[in-house]
Write a structure and sequence with these properties.
Layout: H1 4-13, H2 18-31, E1 35-38, H3 40-43, E2 53-58, E3 64-72, H4 81-84, H5 91-100, E4 115-121, H6 127-140, E5 148-152, H7 154-170, H8 174-185, H9 195-207, H10 220-242, H11 246-266, H12 273-301, H13 316-341, H14 347-360, H15 373-385, H16 389-410, H17 420-429, H18 442-453, H19 457-469, E6 474-479, H20 498-504, E7 510-515, E8 519-521, E9 526-529, H21 533-559
Parallel strand pairs: 3-4, 4-5
Antiparallel strand pairs: 1-2, 2-3, 6-7, 8-9
């Protein structure tokens, strides 16, 4: 049994919001090679409704035509006695508007192309209006008329999407069909990303077709793969809304965006405008998702302990912190991207949102694993960028306060193995698991640099004593820069440069560097002499300068 049409029909019928069909239908036209001249967002609600989408393309008879598409979704997806004669954007009014109102375009010979008007709706025509509708169309578009008319309901859309979009790439064989179906069935099962989803994305990007480049235009096969990525994003988004949980879409589409960018890096296409056109469409869809996600969640997150959960039970001792750090990680990315896209974005809004959530959720400065340093760094960088140095200092001091207090009480630092399972085991037993690693702290290494950046000398003196008294190694992982590294024999993935490694897997090719909060006193032959704040600052600057020299030499090597 071929389950493709069943999956496609069920999916199309699930689009119950009016704008969902508006977003999806242009993908179908683009996959058919049509040139889209206007989209719903540009004309919906304006005097030129009746042509939600204007496109030019070859019809089934091979003739180049102009197409006016009128889209009816959401509550209007079925043609009924109610919406047929509705005054505001009803069926009759929309079709007549499409026929009689001109659309101006600079497309060559546009006005002389044959015209076809198509009513698109992801539903059915009800029996009690069927004859009336047929009579109206017969009178409005007689056979002698040069203007053609068609209606595409759920049956026609199922066939078109199955054959021209889903069937071309997303459901090309039993394996991808099975993977996709399993992803949708189990979408709301757990808090992670299904392995089947990872396999599906890799099948599209790395297995179905080998990228060999192009001369003038991107091969149609690859255009359809890119359209499939957009479609997958949209499906995950709509299914997440069905579950009333946009967190699902955030997780899955984050993975898709990163994997897509890895494919671009791997094929050296990061400056290819045609490829970036497709990537940007996926990325902006992701950004719009985050806009909706934070629009929904921020009012709750800013409440006192708003990111906590009353139903999480004992796990909430850990879960609240994990959830908060993940939320802040994505929020800082969203806010920074918002500023990047709009230089006039009010930075006071960023300040109020970020500091408000940190104050409302008291676990915001309580890292449990070393990778929580990413969130801390994001918060600090964003506060520094918007000029709120006082909040940045307070947040950093609060983080140090928690780390040192927890060590005083339990003799433990954030787990350098980044295992929440280890943290849970310790919380339950107060016995450090065998694989819990905190003799070296990359987190403290990074944060000591921020003490210098923010000029917090008194806290530096406190942390210097804490680190040296407890013999804590400030380790920092330094990756081998790329496949041109002089340590090539130590690199497992020899064909990947650093960026490719960062976007493809957990980075392991590198070495450990240690930062000592001390200095070498050659006069007194003391390898761990006391160091003051200014000396430590100069030590960091020297190390940074040496690293910059290495990076520059590597870039020159790559260029040659």
């Amino acid at each position: 049994m071929d389950i493709k049409p069943i999956i496609v029909r069920e999916y199309l019928e699930s689009l119950t919001e009016s704008d969902e069909l508006d977003l999806l239908f242009p993908m179908l036209l683009e996959s058919k090679g049509f040139t889209i001249l206007s989209k719903p967002k540009e004309y919906k609600g304006f005097p030129q409704y009746g042509k939600d989408i204007v496109a030019v393309g070859k019809d089934e008879d091979g003739i180049l035509k102009r197409f006016y598409y009128e889209l009816k979704g959401g509550e209007d997806r079925h043609i009924t006695t109610t919406n047929f004669n509705k005054k505001d954007d009803g069926i009759v009014e929309s079709i007549r508007e499409a026929k009689y109102k001109d659309f101006k375009s600079s497309y060559r010979n546009f006005d002389n192309l044959p015209l076809k008007i198509i009513l698109v709706h992801n539903g059915e025509i009800k029996a009690n209006i069927s004859e009336t509708f047929a009579g109206f169309i017969e009178k409005e578009f007689p056979k002698t008329d040069e203007i053609e008319f068609e209606r595409w309901g759920i049956s026609e859309l199922t066939k078109l999407f199955s054959e021209d979009l889903f069937g071309v790439n997303l459901l090309t064989n039993k394996r991808t069909t099975k993977l996709f179906n399993k992803v949708l069935i189990n979408l709301n099962i757990d808090d992670g990303i299904q392995n089947e989803f990872e396999l599906l994305i890799d099948a599209l990007l790395f297995e179905e077709e080998v990228w060999i480049g192009y001369k003038r235009s991107i091969p149609r096969k690859w255009k359809l793969i890119f359209e499939s990525l957009k479609l997958i994003s949209f499906i995950i988004y709509t299914e997440s809304k069905e579950h009333n949980n946009l967190e699902i879409a955030k997780r899955y589409i984050s993975y898709l965006v990163l994997r897509f960018w890895y494919w671009i890096l791997k094929n050296r296409l990061e400056k290819d405008k045609k490829i970036l056109h497709y990537y940007n469409q996926v990325f902006f869809f992701y950004f719009n998702l985050l806009t909706e996600y934070f629009g929904r969640t921020l009012p709750i997150a800013k409440l006192n302990n708003g990111l906590s959960s009353e139903i999480a039970g004992r796990y909430e001792q850990i879960g609240y912190t994990v959830r908060t750090f993940d939320y802040l990680f994505h929020l800082t990315f969203f806010l920074k991207t918002s500023i990047l896209f709009d230089p006039n974005f009010d930075k006071r809004i960023t300040q109020d949102i970020l500091t408000g959530i940190i104050k409302a959720n008291n676990v915001s400065a309580r890292p449990l694993i070393d990778i929580h340093s990413l969130t801390i760094v994001n918060v600090l960088n964003l506060l520094i960028d918007i000029g709120d140095l006082e909040s940045a200092k307070n947040y950093l001091i609060e983080v140090f306060g928690y780390v040192t207090l927890r060590h005083k009480d339990y003799k433990i630092l954030p787990d350098a193995n980044n295992s929440i399972s280890n943290v849970i085991k310790f919380t339950e037993s107060r016995i450090k698991p065998i694989y819990y690693s905190d003799s070296t702290s990359p987190l403290l290494n990074v944060l000591m640099e921020y003490l210098v950046i923010l000029g917090i000398e008194d806290r530096f003196l406190f942390m210097k004593k804490f680190i040296n008294d407890n013999k804590i190694d400030l380790g920092l992982f330094i990756p081998h820069l790329n496949k041109h590294s002089t340590s090539l024999d130590l690199i497992e993935e020899k064909e990947l440069d650093l960026d490719e490694q960062l976007f493809s897997k957990s980075l392991k090719d590198g070495y450990q560097s240690e930062l000592k909060v001390s200095k070498v006193d050659y006069e007194n032959m003391d390898l761990n002499a006391d160091i003051n704040f200014e000396e430590f600052k100069q030590k960091l600057l020297k190390e940074k300068m040496n690293l910059n020299i290495i990076i520059e030499l590597t870039k020159q090597d790559m260029a040659s």
